[in-house]
Amino acid sequence: MRIGVVPFLDRQGGGIYQYTVTMLQALLIIKKDGFSDEFIIFSTNSNHPLIIELRKQDFQIISLEPSSIKEKLKHVIKTNIDEKWIFNTYSYLTGLSRIRHKKIDLNSIKRRDKIRNHFLSYKTDLIIYTAPTSLSFEVNIPYVMPIHDLQHRLQPEFPEVSADGEFEEREYLYSNGIKQATMILAESEVGKEDIIRFYDKDKKLNRNKIKILPYIPSFVDIKNNDEVGIKVREKFHLPKRYLFYPAAFWPHKNHLRIIKALDVINDKYKCKIPIVFCGSYIGKYRKESYDEVRETAKKFSIETYYLDYVKDSDLVGLYTGAEALVMPTFFGPTNIPVIEAWVVGCPVITSDIRGIREQVGDAALLVDPKNEKDIARGIYKLWTDGKLRKNLISKGKMKVKSYSFDDYCRRLQSLIDEAKACIEYNNK
């Protein structure tokens, strides 16, 4: 069988990008271990290091865009700065750039015949998408697709998941994408519960096609942690002790309350704690959030470092050198930085909300994301209590043992085999 893979390889995508990297690395292992079927990577970024490595390992790498629409894409690329062209090309092809102010008919599916024919010209039997996309059902080829969260249903008060037609766009994607998929991947039982809760009200969905594939970080073999932490601290001119939060500046990521919590600590305990942020601020809502965080940090004289996105080796060093990951996000159910922190022995402070509670158990210090005083309580407690810090590091390491990369590879291969069997059965 010929299996297509459509990867999302834009770093601005944050967690979805990391999810994609992990899956591609797993496919490399699966192929090396003798997987007999052929993988075809349909990518908009032929120069990405992982794509280059896949090509070296005899994966077939094909441009995602059919030649018939390349001229249109030239305009997309030329009118955007270099850092954005990969995302804009991917968005154009997958439907993310669809005009949002137009009313969307959930039952009227736009067929993408040119891209469908492009896929079929390579005799593609099954397509694995590493990010949710309407392209999946618009090309109408059997597919496997992940659902990372359904926050537009759970917390529509956040504009990044509901405003400017975003809610309707997501409904179009998920209502059709879940129904027509060969297989849907959820990252946790809570994620699976949400899919069923919102998209199987008529009890007609085949719930057996919703499978759990827990996320694992793309970096799992970490050596010389302390040395890496020192080098990265020197590279970015960071203080000896700092807190760390790698997340794009979406409002739901709650950066602002971290700044306010650090001000509470300074006022109450006369203790100045530095914070290092690492994430994108491109786009309307992220830029607004970023500007407000910077203004507030300046107002309260909070020592703050803004690093944008960094390469994985530097990310490991930032975790290693940090006193703690502070992630008071409003969204779950699975948050990738928490697992990344556990891998490198960085203690975690995160939100006491549904989904995250199930993810972390007792391996993190939980705080109320709506209350900067409670966030301050958690930060100050961990900052000043060495015993608690060591205990959380130990529990995090125990927790992460359930996230073996070998287990992930075996699980992914098993799910691919199951999807293939489903297609073969339906073709009888």
From TrEMBL:
<dbReference type="Pfam" id="PF00534">
    <property type="entry name" value="Glycos_transf_1"/>
</dbReference>
<protein>
    <recommendedName>
        <fullName>Glycosyl transferase family 1 domain-containing protein</fullName>
    </recommendedName>
</protein>
<dbReference type="InterPro" id="IPR001296">
    <property type="entry name" value="Glyco_trans_1"/>
</dbReference>
<dbReference type="GO" id="GO:0016757">
    <property type="term" value="F:glycosyltransferase activity"/>
</dbReference>
<feature type="domain" description="Glycosyl transferase family 1">
    <location>
        <begin position="237"/>
        <end position="397"/>
    </location>
</feature>
